[in-house]
Design goal:
Alpha-lytic protease prodomain-like
């Protein structure tokens, strides 16, 4: 009995730690979403807009992850499927924006892009550091880590786009990076959906 009580306490402590991390990264993503919306509008950057949509999707993703920390394996798998769908929606939003920018070419304001990109990357690196201990955990926390890792790649890519826009004084680097991020989102959506599907099939029907 003592061992069982100890196990229950360990599980509850682990779940509380997961909830604290998810609350923190959710709030960070909400804050960076607001910052990136203004920066994307000011800078006229497709790459920044992709980051904006990603931050919004991640905030929702972390909220969903938070809601099922103590749930069963099948419930977590269902939420992970929804996360994969959200990433796919973000990819669709980026694709639409890329199409619009191709039809209306412009040179982004690299100063605005640079400041926003650096702040966003710093926030994303902190979130990844918080989630890193859970990267090999259950499908719920692993998918949250996957989203955070994508954020870091996205942040680095936007900085690269900013430098290229400044060097070439052209809008095409912004479009190229936005396309690269689109491919990253699609790959991530596939990975999350595949893991969630496997977890769902392997989990008992009553969880």
């Amino acid at each position: 009995m003592g061992d069982c009580c100890g196990c229950d306490l360990d599980i509850k402590a682990m779940q509380e730690a997961q909830k604290r991390v998810l609350r923190t990264v959710m709030l960070i993503n909400i804050a960076t979403f607001g910052m990136m919306v203004g920066a994307a509008w000011y800078s006229r950057s497709s790459a920044l807009l992709s980051g904006t949509l990603d931050n919004l999707g991640d905030a929702v993703t972390y909220a969903l992850s938070l809601s099922v920390v103590a749930a069963g394996a099948r419930a977590k798998a269902r939420v992970a499927v929804f996360k994969g769908a959200l990433i796919s929606c973000a990819a669709l939003g980026v694709a639409i924006q890329i199409g619009w920018r191709l039809a209306h070419p412009t040179v982004p304001i690299f100063e605005g892009m640079g400041v926003a990109a650096i702040l966003n990357l710093a926030a994303n690196l902190y979130c990844l550091r918080l989630l890193n201990p859970y990267r090999a955990g259950d499908v719920n926390m692993a998918s949250a880590w996957e989203c955070s890792r994508n954020d870091v790649f996205e942040g680095i890519a936007v900085i690269v786009a900013t430098v290229a826009v400044w060097v070439f004084d052209a809008g095409w680097p912004d479009i190229v990076v936005a396309i690269a991020l689109l491919l990253l989102f699609l790959r991530s959506a596939f990975r999350v959906l595949r893991s969630a599907t496997l977890a769902y099939r392997a989990s008992p029907s009553n969880t």
